[in-house]
Amino acid sequence: MKSSNHRLGRSAALLVSALGASVLLSACAPLLLGGAAVGSAMVVTDRRSTGTQLDDQGIELKAVNRIAPIAGDRGHVSATSYNKVVLLSGEVPDEAMRARVEQQVRSIEGVRSVVNELAILAPSSLTARSNDSLLTSKVKATLVDAKDIQASAIKVVTERGTVYLMGVVTEREATRASDLARSVSGVQKVVRVFEVITEAQLANTKPAPVVEK
C-alpha cells in the first residue's frame, strides 16, 4: 500500500509540474484556452483562421531572413506577426537601419501593416532579454488567472520592460488585458497593438484550432 501511495504521489507531482511548465511557455507556443473540453483534454483555439495562422508564421520566417543581413550583429530585431500585422521590436544603431528594416518587412507579401517600435540603442544584453522573457511569462500567467478574458486571443511581446499586446479583441478585452499587464511587477509600460472588433463581430467569430509552430 505504501508503494502504491508513493507512486500516486509521484504521478500527482509530475502532473503539477507539467501544468506549471505550461504556464511558462514562450510566445511561440499557444498558452491556453478558449477551447472546448474533449474528455479530459482542452482543444486550444485561435481567433485567426488556420490559413491566417500559417500566413503569420510564413511572414515571421521571411522577416527573419530579410532582417538578418541588414542588422547583422549591430542590431537586435524581432518581428512578430499577428493577423498579418507585424510588430518590429528591439534595437538598431541608427535611423537608417530602422527605416530599412521596416521597408523590407513591409514589402513581404501578405503584410497588412507594420508597427515599428525599434529603438535606436545598443543591442540589449542577454540578461535584459531573459528578464523580458520572464515578464512575458508573468503577463501570460496573469491573463490566464484572470478567468474573465480569453488569454489565447492575446499575444504578448516584451522588450526592455515594455509589454506589447497583440490580438483581435473587443474594446472591453483590450482594456482588461492592458490593466492586467500593468499590474505585473516589473512592467514599465504597456503598448496596445490590438485590432479592435465589436462584441457582435466577436460573437460571429469562428475560432480555429491553433497551428503549432
TrEMBL record:
SMART domains per UniProt: BON
Membrane-spanning ranges: none
Residue span, BON domain: 55-122, 131-198
Gene3D superfamilies the UniProt entry points to: 3.40.1520.20
Keywords: Signal
Pfam family, one: BON
Name the UniProt record assigns to this protein: BON domain-containing protein
Organism: Aquincola tertiaricarbonis
